[in-house]
Specification:
The chain is mainly alpha-helical. The protein has a single domain, classed as ABC transporter involved in vitamin B12 uptake, BtuC. The protein has 14 helices and four strands. It is globular. The chain starts with a helix and ends with a helix.
Protein backbone atom coordinates (compact mmCIF):
# COMPACT_ATOMS: atom_id res chain seq x y z
CA UNK A 1 0.00 0.00 0.00
CA UNK A 2 1.33 3.43 -0.91
CA UNK A 3 1.88 5.90 1.95
CA UNK A 4 -0.94 8.15 0.75
CA UNK A 5 -3.34 5.23 0.51
CA UNK A 6 -2.33 4.00 3.93
CA UNK A 7 -3.00 7.36 5.56
CA UNK A 8 -6.42 7.68 3.94
CA UNK A 9 -7.26 4.07 4.79
CA UNK A 10 -6.33 4.48 8.43
CA UNK A 11 -8.40 7.63 8.81
CA UNK A 12 -11.42 6.31 6.94
CA UNK A 13 -11.56 2.93 8.64
CA UNK A 14 -11.59 4.65 12.00
CA UNK A 15 -13.83 7.64 11.35
CA UNK A 16 -15.44 7.16 7.97
CA UNK A 17 -13.74 10.27 6.55
CA UNK A 18 -10.21 11.35 5.68
CA UNK A 19 -8.28 13.86 7.72
CA UNK A 20 -7.81 16.17 4.70
CA UNK A 21 -10.46 17.93 2.68
CA UNK A 22 -11.75 15.44 0.15
CA UNK A 23 -11.26 17.78 -2.79
CA UNK A 24 -7.61 18.28 -1.88
CA UNK A 25 -7.09 14.53 -1.79
CA UNK A 26 -8.85 14.20 -5.15
CA UNK A 27 -6.89 16.98 -6.84
CA UNK A 28 -3.34 16.40 -5.60
CA UNK A 29 -0.64 13.94 -6.55
CA UNK A 30 -2.14 11.89 -9.34
CA UNK A 31 -3.63 14.82 -11.25
CA UNK A 32 -0.59 17.11 -11.30
CA UNK A 33 1.26 15.42 -14.17
CA UNK A 34 -1.75 14.81 -16.45
CA UNK A 35 -3.06 18.32 -15.82
CA UNK A 36 0.30 19.82 -16.79
CA UNK A 37 0.29 17.68 -19.95
CA UNK A 38 -3.23 18.83 -20.79
CA UNK A 39 -2.34 22.51 -20.37
CA UNK A 40 0.79 22.03 -22.49
CA UNK A 41 -1.20 20.34 -25.26
CA UNK A 42 -3.78 23.14 -25.27
CA UNK A 43 -1.05 25.79 -25.44
CA UNK A 44 0.76 24.02 -28.29
CA UNK A 45 -2.35 23.50 -30.41
CA UNK A 46 -3.63 27.00 -29.66
CA UNK A 47 -0.41 28.55 -30.96
CA UNK A 48 0.11 26.24 -33.95
CA UNK A 49 -3.44 26.06 -35.34
CA UNK A 50 -5.98 28.76 -36.15
CA UNK A 51 -9.28 27.66 -34.65
CA UNK A 52 -8.37 25.25 -31.86
CA UNK A 53 -8.81 27.73 -29.00
CA UNK A 54 -12.20 29.00 -30.18
CA UNK A 55 -15.09 28.59 -27.80
CA UNK A 56 -16.99 26.43 -30.27
CA UNK A 57 -14.06 24.02 -30.69
CA UNK A 58 -13.33 23.73 -26.97
CA UNK A 59 -17.02 22.98 -26.38
CA UNK A 60 -16.78 20.34 -29.09
CA UNK A 61 -13.77 18.78 -27.32
CA UNK A 62 -15.82 18.44 -24.14
CA UNK A 63 -18.81 17.01 -26.01
CA UNK A 64 -16.58 14.49 -27.79
CA UNK A 65 -15.19 13.42 -24.41
CA UNK A 66 -18.50 12.82 -22.66
CA UNK A 67 -19.31 9.20 -23.52
CA UNK A 68 -15.80 7.79 -23.20
CA UNK A 69 -15.21 9.95 -20.13
CA UNK A 70 -18.26 8.49 -18.39
CA UNK A 71 -17.29 4.95 -19.36
CA UNK A 72 -13.83 5.68 -17.97
CA UNK A 73 -15.29 6.52 -14.56
CA UNK A 74 -16.64 2.99 -14.27
CA UNK A 75 -13.39 1.67 -15.70
CA UNK A 76 -11.45 3.57 -13.04
CA UNK A 77 -13.37 1.89 -10.22
CA UNK A 78 -12.56 -1.51 -11.70
CA UNK A 79 -8.88 -0.70 -12.33
CA UNK A 80 -8.49 0.58 -8.75
CA UNK A 81 -9.28 -2.96 -7.59
CA UNK A 82 -6.43 -4.23 -9.86
CA UNK A 83 -8.99 -5.43 -12.41
CA UNK A 84 -9.91 -4.35 -15.91
CA UNK A 85 -13.15 -4.16 -17.87
CA UNK A 86 -12.69 -4.87 -21.57
CA UNK A 87 -16.46 -5.03 -22.03
CA UNK A 88 -17.50 -1.59 -20.73
CA UNK A 89 -18.49 -0.15 -24.12
CA UNK A 90 -20.09 -3.43 -25.19
CA UNK A 91 -22.28 -3.28 -22.09
CA UNK A 92 -23.14 0.33 -22.90
CA UNK A 93 -24.02 -0.56 -26.50
CA UNK A 94 -26.19 -3.48 -25.35
CA UNK A 95 -28.03 -1.15 -23.00
CA UNK A 96 -28.52 1.42 -25.77
CA UNK A 97 -29.96 -1.08 -28.28
CA UNK A 98 -32.34 -2.43 -25.63
CA UNK A 99 -33.46 1.15 -25.02
CA UNK A 100 -33.79 1.79 -28.76
CA UNK A 101 -35.77 -1.35 -29.51
CA UNK A 102 -38.26 -0.84 -26.69
CA UNK A 103 -38.55 2.89 -27.43
CA UNK A 104 -39.80 2.06 -30.92
CA UNK A 105 -43.07 1.00 -29.27
CA UNK A 106 -43.34 4.45 -27.72
CA UNK A 107 -42.84 3.52 -24.05
CA UNK A 108 -39.74 5.63 -23.51
CA UNK A 109 -39.61 5.46 -19.72
CA UNK A 110 -39.83 1.66 -19.81
CA UNK A 111 -37.09 1.61 -22.44
CA UNK A 112 -34.78 3.71 -20.30
CA UNK A 113 -35.46 1.58 -17.21
CA UNK A 114 -34.84 -1.62 -19.19
CA UNK A 115 -31.50 -0.26 -20.41
CA UNK A 116 -30.42 0.49 -16.85
CA UNK A 117 -31.47 -2.99 -15.68
CA UNK A 118 -29.55 -4.64 -18.51
CA UNK A 119 -26.29 -2.79 -17.88
CA UNK A 120 -26.48 -3.33 -14.12
CA UNK A 121 -27.19 -7.05 -14.60
CA UNK A 122 -24.26 -7.37 -16.98
CA UNK A 123 -22.08 -5.60 -14.45
CA UNK A 124 -23.33 -8.07 -11.84
CA UNK A 125 -22.40 -10.96 -14.13
CA UNK A 126 -18.86 -9.61 -14.41
CA UNK A 127 -18.73 -9.03 -10.66
CA UNK A 128 -20.00 -12.51 -9.84
CA UNK A 129 -17.48 -14.24 -12.08
CA UNK A 130 -14.60 -12.14 -10.75
CA UNK A 131 -15.51 -12.18 -7.07
CA UNK A 132 -17.41 -15.41 -6.44
CA UNK A 133 -15.80 -17.62 -9.09
CA UNK A 134 -12.39 -15.94 -8.62
CA UNK A 135 -11.80 -15.77 -12.38
CA UNK A 136 -9.29 -13.26 -13.82
CA UNK A 137 -11.03 -9.96 -14.76
CA UNK A 138 -9.20 -9.85 -18.09
CA UNK A 139 -10.57 -13.24 -19.17
CA UNK A 140 -14.06 -12.61 -17.80
CA UNK A 141 -14.54 -9.25 -19.47
CA UNK A 142 -12.91 -10.42 -22.70
CA UNK A 143 -15.45 -13.24 -22.85
CA UNK A 144 -18.31 -10.88 -22.06
CA UNK A 145 -17.05 -8.47 -24.73
CA UNK A 146 -17.03 -11.21 -27.34
CA UNK A 147 -20.48 -12.47 -26.36
CA UNK A 148 -22.06 -9.00 -26.28
CA UNK A 149 -20.52 -7.91 -29.57
CA UNK A 150 -22.37 -10.76 -31.24
CA UNK A 151 -25.33 -10.61 -28.87
CA UNK A 152 -26.17 -7.00 -29.70
CA UNK A 153 -26.30 -7.85 -33.40
CA UNK A 154 -28.44 -10.92 -32.77
CA UNK A 155 -30.81 -8.95 -30.55
CA UNK A 156 -31.34 -6.30 -33.22
CA UNK A 157 -30.90 -8.47 -36.34
CA UNK A 158 -27.98 -6.11 -37.08
CA UNK A 159 -30.45 -3.23 -37.44
CA UNK A 160 -30.14 0.17 -35.81
CA UNK A 161 -32.96 2.15 -34.25
CA UNK A 162 -33.39 5.90 -34.80
CA UNK A 163 -34.01 7.77 -31.55
CA UNK A 164 -36.70 10.42 -31.80
CA UNK A 165 -37.67 10.80 -28.17
CA UNK A 166 -36.73 14.13 -26.60
CA UNK A 167 -36.14 12.32 -23.30
CA UNK A 168 -33.57 9.94 -24.78
CA UNK A 169 -31.72 12.73 -26.60
CA UNK A 170 -32.03 15.25 -23.76
CA UNK A 171 -28.42 14.91 -22.60
CA UNK A 172 -27.16 16.39 -25.86
CA UNK A 173 -29.02 19.63 -25.16
CA UNK A 174 -28.41 22.32 -22.60
CA UNK A 175 -28.18 26.06 -21.92
CA UNK A 176 -26.14 28.33 -24.16
CA UNK A 177 -23.47 30.36 -22.41
CA UNK A 178 -21.56 32.92 -24.45
CA UNK A 179 -22.80 31.38 -27.67
CA UNK A 180 -21.64 27.90 -26.62
CA UNK A 181 -23.97 25.06 -25.60
CA UNK A 182 -23.16 23.42 -22.27
CA UNK A 183 -24.85 20.04 -22.67
CA UNK A 184 -26.55 18.17 -19.86
CA UNK A 185 -24.43 15.17 -20.82
CA UNK A 186 -21.26 17.12 -20.07
CA UNK A 187 -22.77 18.31 -16.79
CA UNK A 188 -23.62 14.70 -15.91
CA UNK A 189 -20.05 13.59 -16.69
CA UNK A 190 -18.47 16.28 -14.52
CA UNK A 191 -21.04 15.83 -11.77
CA UNK A 192 -20.50 12.06 -11.71
CA UNK A 193 -16.75 12.63 -11.54
CA UNK A 194 -17.17 14.90 -8.52
CA UNK A 195 -19.51 12.40 -6.86
CA UNK A 196 -17.15 9.46 -7.39
CA UNK A 197 -14.13 11.52 -6.30
CA UNK A 198 -15.95 12.27 -3.05
CA UNK A 199 -16.97 8.63 -2.59
CA UNK A 200 -13.45 7.35 -3.21
CA UNK A 201 -11.67 9.80 -0.92
CA UNK A 202 -14.23 10.41 1.80
CA UNK A 203 -16.10 7.17 2.46
CA UNK A 204 -15.32 3.72 3.81
CA UNK A 205 -16.48 2.26 0.49
CA UNK A 206 -13.77 4.20 -1.34
CA UNK A 207 -11.11 3.28 1.20
CA UNK A 208 -11.95 -0.39 0.83
CA UNK A 209 -11.64 -0.16 -2.95
CA UNK A 210 -8.11 1.24 -2.63
CA UNK A 211 -7.17 -1.30 0.01
CA UNK A 212 -8.46 -4.26 -2.00
CA UNK A 213 -6.66 -3.03 -5.09
CA UNK A 214 -3.41 -2.45 -3.24
CA UNK A 215 -3.32 -5.71 -1.26
CA UNK A 216 -6.40 -7.98 -1.09
CA UNK A 217 -4.80 -10.24 1.51
CA UNK A 218 -4.12 -7.31 3.82
CA UNK A 219 -7.69 -6.15 3.21
CA UNK A 220 -9.01 -9.48 4.45
CA UNK A 221 -6.82 -9.26 7.54
CA UNK A 222 -8.40 -5.93 8.55
CA UNK A 223 -11.91 -7.34 8.10
CA UNK A 224 -12.81 -6.15 4.61
CA UNK A 225 -15.07 -8.47 2.61
CA UNK A 226 -13.02 -8.49 -0.59
CA UNK A 227 -15.58 -10.39 -2.66
CA UNK A 228 -18.36 -8.02 -1.68
CA UNK A 229 -16.23 -5.00 -2.60
CA UNK A 230 -15.32 -6.47 -5.99
CA UNK A 231 -18.91 -7.41 -6.77
CA UNK A 232 -20.17 -3.97 -5.76
CA UNK A 233 -17.60 -2.18 -7.93
CA UNK A 234 -18.69 -4.04 -11.08
CA UNK A 235 -22.38 -3.39 -10.32
CA UNK A 236 -21.75 0.34 -9.80
CA UNK A 237 -19.71 0.36 -13.00
CA UNK A 238 -22.68 -1.21 -14.81
CA UNK A 239 -24.92 1.59 -13.57
CA UNK A 240 -22.41 4.16 -14.82
CA UNK A 241 -22.39 2.46 -18.24
CA UNK A 242 -26.16 3.00 -18.37
CA UNK A 243 -25.58 6.74 -18.00
CA UNK A 244 -23.03 6.53 -20.81
CA UNK A 245 -25.62 4.75 -22.98
CA UNK A 246 -28.06 7.60 -22.41
CA UNK A 247 -25.37 10.13 -23.30
CA UNK A 248 -24.50 8.15 -26.44
CA UNK A 249 -28.12 8.23 -27.62
CA UNK A 250 -28.00 12.01 -27.32
CA UNK A 251 -24.66 12.36 -29.09
CA UNK A 252 -25.67 10.13 -31.99
CA UNK A 253 -29.48 9.67 -31.97
CA UNK A 254 -29.27 6.10 -33.20
CA UNK A 255 -29.09 2.87 -31.21
CA UNK A 256 -26.49 1.03 -33.25
CA UNK A 257 -25.25 -2.47 -32.28
CA UNK A 258 -21.93 -1.66 -34.00
CA UNK A 259 -21.50 1.69 -32.28
CA UNK A 260 -18.43 2.81 -30.31
CA UNK A 261 -16.17 -0.08 -31.41
CA UNK A 262 -13.01 1.39 -29.84
CA UNK A 263 -14.54 2.87 -26.69
CA UNK A 264 -13.52 -0.14 -24.56
CA UNK A 265 -9.85 0.59 -25.18
CA UNK A 266 -10.39 4.37 -25.23
CA UNK A 267 -11.69 4.21 -21.66
CA UNK A 268 -8.63 2.25 -20.53
CA UNK A 269 -6.41 4.78 -22.31
CA UNK A 270 -8.08 7.66 -20.44
CA UNK A 271 -7.67 5.87 -17.11
CA UNK A 272 -4.00 5.09 -17.65
CA UNK A 273 -3.06 8.52 -19.00
CA UNK A 274 -4.97 10.04 -16.09
CA UNK A 275 -2.55 8.43 -13.66
CA UNK A 276 -4.51 5.47 -12.29
CA UNK A 277 -2.28 2.46 -11.83
CA UNK A 278 -3.14 -0.70 -13.76
CA UNK A 279 -1.74 -2.59 -10.78
CA UNK A 280 -4.51 -1.24 -8.54
CA UNK A 281 -4.69 0.81 -5.37
CA UNK A 282 -3.58 4.18 -6.75
CA UNK A 283 -5.30 6.87 -8.81
CA UNK A 284 -8.81 8.24 -9.08
CA UNK A 285 -11.56 9.61 -11.27
CA UNK A 286 -10.34 13.21 -11.29
CA UNK A 287 -7.21 12.15 -13.14
CA UNK A 288 -9.37 10.07 -15.45
CA UNK A 289 -11.36 13.16 -16.43
CA UNK A 290 -8.10 14.94 -17.27
CA UNK A 291 -6.85 11.85 -19.12
CA UNK A 292 -10.00 11.76 -21.23
CA UNK A 293 -9.55 15.39 -22.16
CA UNK A 294 -5.89 14.79 -23.04
CA UNK A 295 -6.85 12.08 -25.53
CA UNK A 296 -9.61 14.19 -27.08
CA UNK A 297 -7.47 17.33 -27.21
CA UNK A 298 -4.69 15.35 -28.88
CA UNK A 299 -7.03 13.94 -31.51
CA UNK A 300 -8.80 17.25 -32.09
CA UNK A 301 -5.59 19.28 -32.19
CA UNK A 302 -3.86 16.91 -34.60
CA UNK A 303 -6.94 17.03 -36.83
CA UNK A 304 -6.74 20.83 -36.87
CA UNK A 305 -3.06 20.50 -37.73
CA UNK A 306 -3.93 18.28 -40.71
CA UNK A 307 -2.32 15.13 -39.27
CA UNK A 308 -3.68 11.81 -40.55
CA UNK A 309 -5.89 9.89 -38.10
CA UNK A 310 -3.52 6.90 -38.22
CA UNK A 311 -0.73 9.05 -36.79
CA UNK A 312 -3.15 10.22 -34.11
CA UNK A 313 -3.59 6.61 -33.04
CA UNK A 314 0.18 6.15 -32.98
CA UNK A 315 0.55 9.21 -30.75
CA UNK A 316 -2.15 7.95 -28.39
CA UNK A 317 -0.53 4.53 -28.19
CA UNK A 318 2.85 6.07 -27.35
CA UNK A 319 1.21 8.11 -24.57
CA UNK A 320 -0.31 4.97 -23.05
CA UNK A 321 3.00 3.11 -23.05
CA UNK A 322 4.77 6.09 -21.48
CA UNK A 323 2.06 6.42 -18.81
CA UNK A 324 2.34 2.73 -17.85
CA UNK A 325 6.14 2.97 -17.82
CA UNK A 326 6.03 6.01 -15.51
CA UNK A 327 3.56 4.22 -13.23
CA UNK A 328 5.78 1.15 -13.08
CA UNK A 329 8.85 3.26 -12.27
CA UNK A 330 6.97 5.16 -9.59
CA UNK A 331 5.75 1.99 -7.87
CA UNK A 332 9.23 0.47 -8.01
CA UNK A 333 10.72 3.49 -6.28
CA UNK A 334 7.97 3.53 -3.63
CA UNK A 335 8.53 -0.14 -2.82
CA UNK A 336 12.22 0.41 -2.05
Amino acid sequence: MTPATARVAAADLDTGVGSSSWWRVALTGQVTGPLAALILAVVIFSTTTENFFSGANLALVVQQSVVVGTLAIGQTLVVLTAGIDLACAAIMVMGSVVIGRIAVSGNVWLALLAGVVVTVLLGAVNGSLVSLASLPPFIVTLGVLTALTAGARLFTDSASYPIKSTLLTALNHGPRVGGVTITYGAMAWIGLTVLMAYALTQTKWGTRIYTVGDNPHAAELVGINVKRVLFGVYVVAGLIYAIAAWQALGRTPTADPAGYPTANLDSITAVVIGGTSLFGGRGGVTGTLVGTLIVTVLQNGLTHAGIDSLYQQVATGVLVVLAVAVDRLTRTRQSR
